[in-house]
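Consider the following assembly input.
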Amino acid sequence: MSHDALLAELISIVGERYVVTAAPDTAAFLTDHRGRYTGEALAVVKPASTAEVSGVVKACAAAGVAIVPQGGNTGLCGAATPVGPRPSIVLRLDRMNRIRAVSAAEETITVEAGCILADIQAAAARDGLLFPLSLGAEGSCQIGGNIATNAGGIAVLRYGNMRQLVLGLEVVLADGTVLGGLRRLRKDNSGYDLKQLFVGAEGTLGIVTAATLKLFPAIRSRSIAMMQIAGVADALTLFAQARKTFGERISSFEIIGSSYMDFVLKYVTGTVMPFAQPAPWYLLLEVGDSRPDAPLAADMEAFLGEIFEAGLVSDAVIGSSLAQEEAIWKLRHGVTGEFKLAGKTMSHDTSVPVAEQPAFVERVEAAVLAAYPDANVMMVGHIGDGNIHVVVLFPHERFATAEAFEAASDDVDVIIDDIAMDLGGSITAEHGVGYTYRKRLARTKNPDELLLMRGIKQMLDPNGLMNPGKIFLPAEPA
Amino acid sequence: MSHDALLAELISIVGERYVVTAAPDTAAFLTDHRGRYTGEALAVVKPASTAEVSGVVKACAAAGVAIVPQGGNTGLCGAATPVGPRPSIVLRLDRMNRIRAVSAAEETITVEAGCILADIQAAAARDGLLFPLSLGAEGSCQIGGNIATNAGGIAVLRYGNMRQLVLGLEVVLADGTVLGGLRRLRKDNSGYDLKQLFVGAEGTLGIVTAATLKLFPAIRSRSIAMMQIAGVADALTLFAQARKTFGERISSFEIIGSSYMDFVLKYVTGTVMPFAQPAPWYLLLEVGDSRPDAPLAADMEAFLGEIFEAGLVSDAVIGSSLAQEEAIWKLRHGVTGEFKLAGKTMSHDTSVPVAEQPAFVERVEAAVLAAYPDANVMMVGHIGDGNIHVVVLFPHERFATAEAFEAASDDVDVIIDDIAMDLGGSITAEHGVGYTYRKRLARTKNPDELLLMRGIKQMLDPNGLMNPGKIFLPAEPA
């Protein structure tokens, strides 16, 4: 089928208005969120239903044209941008944004892939329930993308990552088959759990079109505190202590290094340092309870008193109003945009086993500074999950050419990845692999696992039409 | 390779003592827990390490001999018994029963596949933590089997099933490759999550040899109550009410039908009816908190007062001592052995969406009694998970021949399965498919899903050596 014939067929499936080919209208969908990659596409196609997605996939398969599914295009590693030589379309699910059902009795919600994460949170809240996935881009990212990337965020510690929140999944396979697994079951051992294949596969095995998700009792009382501590080992001691007081009520346990704090205070509008003096590290602890009358504020004060007595913190503040709570969270939340103001950054999304974080932090800082003494090594992350983001910042003018910067960036990747792997970690904890991390994946992943991954890809997408060029490097000739 | 040569090679790998071939010594491992199937095996082989498992698998692959992995042999659907014509060995993991590590800081435990579930619970408890998986056979089942069957039980409502408790998995593949995925990471998006393939695959894709599991804060205060209610719809109203009071503190929410209660009181030694009068249904609610001082007993009394006022319960008791709590649980716990005393039983492990349970119960009872007016339709299960076990009981002498019983049993399966599927359910919620349920799976499973399952099986086990005859019926000739 010629590309013109394909476009005509796509128009017959989704309507002329939803096959977008004019350059000004497609531009926003052809560049990734970080602005690192710009690709080409025959069209940006916007189906309105699962049947239309299936039709689009069948037409593309017949024409040998690849499909790049795209949610809110907020991903951080280029998984939703067309790359490489293969002609492709970008598939946007925006029009599939219905919340199909909320069941308070079942604590479930059934949503289409194009639903904005914040809209799902709001729909759950209207029924007195909680959809716990929460991350910086929640106002614009789509649940289909969250599922495809197995999104993480600030509530994984308590509720698990996206994978653990999925009960049922509807997926369109590479041949257009609709795999109808939209079940609302809490227990189902009738054969292999196929939905697991598509969670975190970044669109390389099929297209998520709808999902049934778990909900939880809403949080009706909470308390938030920020603490100043001397080091990461103390953070782990504190976490163990907090577990004793708060048990499963701990919702988030985040860490901010001093140079990251300095950066935020300098570049993020409206942030204020809540302490008189700086400290090497800052911890953010949020606890919550479904009971409106849980005495969390009193518990938090008692807890802070104890750890202060024990010499674990030098100072601490409790958010005693919604405004204060928001001000504390603002010091932690995503600032990808602001990095560009500060200089050239190299961002990482490493995880290591929780107890290995002190070693990780110490070794990374030493190794990066040994290689690049002028680097500003900033750290921030989800210490309850073993997921510390390392952001290495250089002045704008530090590298003469883009190539020099890329070479240094690759170099820093190797330094950090080797330490992570040595500690039993992962080079990508929550962002996924996408296009950006595939070389690093190929270098660090166990070859047996990589081989099995390729086998799965080959089985589900034998013609390589599902988001090609992502996760895997092109195969070596056999 | 001849079978004799294979046995010699197996002896060279694991030692003569651990290649068991004498009939009296193998008998216990060749019949399933329910005593429905007895198979044959060249030997029962007991490796002591992952390397030995890998060696055994390679030797068997070279000889074309199948491998039936077996944990505690407590499964309820014949998944661990050799069936069919293919020569096979039974692989027991008993000697691989080391708890390799417990980390309180990370809330993880790393165990070998042959560890008894109760031993893992005890090891976690020694460090003040909880491994929440809990089921009737916990004193003898092994964690490898729990993982291979994605075990459920009485704490799924709060902590998820086995799948959600696995952080890392070590698996020996069909060609003997050791897939070393024993990571302790809370977040890892470095490619497809391969471990998910092996959880719940019932040994048909590979052999689980070790796992890293999630732990939770220990429960330090709890309260247990049993209530008498009029119907299943009231149970759901009560559940919603309990959520408001207890939130995430609800650990178990179980239901017992009156005829099942009668059966337990008659046949299970030491059980006592805690109420003056019988009722149509009984609910068991357990709540727990990691704080030792949580006022759960007072909350439970207040809760029972409210629902009594609202006319939702006719009577209720609180377990006010450990002995009383155990007496309440005894009315609920597994009684597979006692069924044989009472008559001939047909047991089911259906799940439906939580809100569909009233319809499920009503329709099943009506349909089974319409076909078999003399049946005693007993129901018991995890109503918080939508998982009600239907046990259909007949007097011993009801069927003249084993064939007549089997025909009636198949008939009842179809009646119940059709209702379950109509309500969006699953024919096997937590027991798995094994040998017993494979015909029912083939009849009820979406053909596209079944095809994809076969594709995965073919990819990972092209020669069909991993637990053949399980999950799938023999393939139709193409």
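The first strand of chain B starts at residue 19 and ends at 20. Ask yourself how this observation constrains the way the partners meet.
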